[in-house]
Design a protein that fits this description.
The structure is a single chain. This protein is an alpha/beta fold and 256 residues long. It is built from 10 helices and 5 strands. The chain has helices at 13-24, 37-49, 88-98, 113-122, 134-144, 156-178, 182-192, 197-204, 208-222, 227-236, and strands at residues 4-9, 29-34, 56-60, 103-108, 126-129. The chain has a 5-stranded parallel beta sheet, with helices on both faces. The radius of gyration is 21 Å and the shape is elongated. The relative contact order is 0.09.
């Protein structure tokens, strides 16, 4: 019998343990539980290192006290490692990046089209009500392993509307980013990576004054008034941050 390895991630201990016990009663399910995003990340990393990867992650949409949906965790220092994600939707994105073979299903207290759309964009394969039946949850778990996406029927219209709006914003953002020169685009990637003016100057072999001019041009072309807004727009457009270590910066033969 092929067994399904499930990790339940919820900071409400009674709920997590009860759900884990119910799932463990199934003959083809092995289940573990974690009480936070960092704990879940450690479980996933350890299981992968031992060659017994999890198949499905069931994660609380409201994981982490005070977490705000759709807002990424604070940017780590440039010199330090990124901390494990601590809120539900951020955890979904982190798992997708670090463990792409793991399918994630978000467990939610209430239907919320916007947050469900954010979860799907982060890489979730399903959004399920916490009060659904065990048989329904098992059907979703088995379904996502067949590459299916599961949403409550009542959410479909709202989620499609949110995804369509997000796609439009992305298209508009991509158009603005395309107006940048190659040098401005490099500066924007550095901004997305969290580098300040002096760090950008050192990285691109430019003077701080020249970098300031490039940054002002980037803000003007993107139609925003702050670095934070420029970074948010860049992320919507899919701009990747500049690598902070191990990459090679090529000197440009063009005049900056």
């Amino acid at each position: 019998m092929v067994r399904i390895r499930v990790l339940v991630v919820d900071d409400h201990r009674i709920f997590a343990e009860s759900l884990a016990a119910a799932l463990a009663a199934e003959p083809d399910v092995d289940v573990s539980a974690a009480g936070s995003g960092p704990a879940a990340s450690r479980c996933l990393d350890r299981a992968a290192a031992e060659g017994r990867r999890f198949d499905v992650l069931l994660v609380d949409a409201d994981l982490g006290a005070g977490a705000v949906a759709g807002v990424p965790p604070p940017r780590p220092p440039v010199s330090g490692p990124a901390p494990p994600p601590s809120d539900g939707i951020a955890l979904v994105a982190g798992v997708r990046a670090a463990h792409p073979g793991v399918r994630t299903v978000v467990l939610a207290e209430r239907d919320d089209p916007r947050r469900a759309a954010l979860a799907l964009q982060a890489g979730a394969s399903g959004w399920v009500a916490k009060d659904c039946s065990l048989s329904r949850l098992l059907a979703v778990v088995r379904g996502v392993l067949r590459e299916e996406t599961h949403l409550p029927p009542a959410l479909l219209t709202g989620v499609l509307r949110e995804l369509t709006a997000a796609r439009k914003h992305r298209t508009d953002s991509e158009r603005l980013v395309e107006s940048l020169t190659p040098r401005e685009h490099e500066v924007l990637r550095c901004m997305v990576a969290g580098l300040g003016r002096k760090d950008v100057a050192a990285r691109l072999f430019l003077s701080p004054h020249t970098v300031r001019t490039h940054m002002q041009n980037v803000l003007g072309k993107l139609g925003v008034h702050s670095t934070l807004a420029a970074v948010a727009l860049a992320r919507r457009a899919g701009v990747r941050p500049a690598e902070l270590a191990g990459d090679v910066v090529e000197r440009s033969g063009q005049l900056a």
